[in-house]
What does this fold into?
Amino acid sequence: MTKRNTAQRRHAILAFVNAAGETSVETLAQRFDFSEVTIRKDLATLEKSGLLLRRHGGAVPLPVELLDGAVNISPAKRAIARAAVERLREHNRIIVDSGTTTSAMIPELDGKTGLVVMTNSLAVANALHALEREPMLLMTGGTWDPHSESFQGQVAEQVLRHYDFDQLFIGADGIDLARGTTTFNELLGLSRVMAEVAREVVVMVEADKIGRRIPNLELPWGCIDTLITDHRLDPADRRAIEAHDVEVVTVMVDDAESRR
It folds into this structure.
């Protein structure tokens, strides 16, 4: 059986479990006409990817509280994500950092072929795994940081240094017009290594984060090639960013949709 057919079966199993609730291996084997051994392997893979939970003799959907973080993505973030994906070429090797804005890229990747995607985020990895055209997925590994909900640390940095990438897509808690991107997180090493191993660094932020000065400098302007934000960007702020030799891309967001 091809990988594509295997992925389709697993997507169908996941949809069935989510709709039916707790489901036995026997029920799944009968419904999808595969052996119980194969179904158990499918459930093990889906659980490892964080898409469901196995129970003795079957599986249950993920609790709703574990899914809430993936639901509320603003129209501005979606528009920024679409603009980011437009910069991708077929067969690009990219890094997608953790965060809601970068995560919004993933549904837009389904039309791209031959992508290689490295991430330190389980949420991003799970979303990639659910795509019809699943790209080659690489994980950094490392030490789990509950604050950023991502892997960090020296192991992750060492893994990244074994590769080179076309682009890094990364968010920020704030944009200091004089210094660069800023963050509340004190773990800065991995972001800087990501920038080192990518030929283009693309920062994705909503306009209301620009001018927000947070003590921890993540990436200085010299490490950043492109900033994608929304149309609310103040013209003076745009000029200040462009003075650092950074390309600024703005996207239109429907104001009525933003107020929903």
Summary: DSSP finds eleven helices and 15 strands in the chain. The two ends are 45 Å apart (CA to CA). The domain at 2-61 is CATH 1.10.10.10 (Arc Repressor Mutant, subunit A). Residues 64-71, 256-260 have pLDDT under 50 and may be disordered.
